[in-house]
Amino acid sequence: MKNLFISFLIFFSFTSTINSQNEETVNQIIKRCLIDSKGYSWLKELCEIGPRLSGSQNSMKAIKWAESKMKKHGFDSVWLQPVYVPHWERGKLEKAFIRSSQKFINKKLTITAFGGSISTPKNGITGKVIEVHSLEEVSKLSDAKGKIIFYNRPFDNSLVSTMEAYGKAVDKRVNGAIEAAKVGAVAVLVRSIQSNY
Predict the structure, then answer these.
(1) Which of 3, 9, 129, 165 has the fewest CB atoms inside 10 Å of its own CB, making it the most exposed?
(2) Which residues pair with 149 in a beta bridge?
(3) Which domain does 57 fall in, by range?
(4) Are 128 and 169 within 8 A, CB to CB?
(5) Are 127 and 76 in the same domain?
């Protein structure tokens, strides 16, 4: 029993040392990335390729760009592998008008269709707008038949991790239309996820 205890002790002290070394290495990598990073300039290059919807020409350009970057920086194993992806093409540019008391308000709305969404009918969609801030609010609506759900919630500026803030705000892009359809809505509008109004 004593030998077994000593074996466990040696094993756990060894693993603890490895974990400590790994943590130190990871922290050094993170620190290096924060201080001496080309991340923003690479992001700029990637964004200059343009929108990269699944299966589009720009998505292929982005893949080639990433492959080139990795090879240039000496990654030891870089290769492309064929993969099937869904392909969706945005139709004609959408237009949105706000109407109040049967009068057009001359305020331009900049909108675009979500990737994978269905086309707007030829004659457009008209309906009263219900403003909500979350998917939970939509699920509590008793009836939104024929209405347009407007998701108006930016990401939370108080969170230190911007990815956490973005992740908590982006749910309406993924599931917003599904939840709105469950209560009878005919369309959804989702504000930009950015932090300011």
Answers:
(1) 3
(2) 130, 188
(3) 49-88
(4) no
(5) no
